[in-house]
Specification:
This protein has 306 residues and is α/β, with parallel strands linked by helices. The chain contains eleven helices and eleven strands. The chain has helices spanning 9-19, 27-35, 53-71, 97-114, 122-138, 144-162, 164-179, 229-242, 257-264, 274-284, 299-303; strands spanning 75-76, 82-83, 183-188, 199-204, 210-218, 226-227, 246-251, 254-255, 269-272, 288-291, 294-297. The strands form four sheets. The chain has a five-stranded mixed sheet with strand order 3-4-5-7-9, sandwiched between helices. A two-stranded antiparallel sheet has the order 1-2. Helix 1 crosses helix 3 and helix 3 (53-71) packs antiparallel against helix 7.
Amino acid sequence: MAKRDFPTKQEIESAVKSVLDADGTERKLLIERSLNCYGYAAAELKDRSCESLNTRLKSLTGVVLNEMLASGSLVTTDDGRLAPPRPVQETKTGLTRTQRRRAQRKRAAERASKQPKYPDTPLGSALEGADKKYQEFRSGKLSAEKYMTALRRALTHAISEAGGEFFEELSMKLLLSVYGGLVKRNELTAGPDDNGIDGKLYIEDPAGFKELVFFQSKTKLNERAYVSVKVVREFLGVMTAWGATKGILITNAHFHRETKTFAAKRSNLLLIDCAALMELMFSHEVGVRSVDGVWHIDDDFFLKCK
């Protein structure tokens, strides 16, 4: 089968709007519905491993959803669903409709002519901010300690802006790097019926012992937010029900003190908070790269679907 290009941002936005319920749709269900509009056969989307077409499309759709939310073409309802914006009455600006459209086209042409290094999106802004700090450090305007602090903060921000689907993929790639050749099979299971499990790793050690590892990624918009003990209790329940031998909870924020206490009593449960996540990303060079001996956000890793 000939290789096809990924759907464009406009095609994804069109697909999202075509399957969006007027009163709102749960995010994961909206992504699943959108995937069915891209023209791929069910067999092509069956594989859910880390590098699969299904995973790439979900990640790309998630990024576009975030951009639609940022632009106001989607809104979040009180119960967390995504919905079309309410129509607002057009305000008077002293210009005719034709004049406003001409002004909009002119501004769009000016932006396009500048050919920015980063896209004009929340994620692009986060990456651009990190690059500015990098340039400041290289020019001697920023100390190494302050630069690394700013870089870690920028990474946390970029993960939030890239969206939950991207973080699930990042988590899987990180765990694949950690476990290496012990992983015999992997599957990203995130979806409307995932039972709180974002991914599975099937592991076999040299002696032949086998393990089934579940993980769940919790993306927080605020790096100071906390994951509650309720989340880890529910996660442990699903692990037990489905026969997982180990479970890993990963967040770009923090775990509540009660959550840590609860997990510490379970030898098969591991918590990875923002600080531990950063250390693993640097140790395995996932999402970051060394440029002439200096750490920098891996722009391609975050923008690969753009």
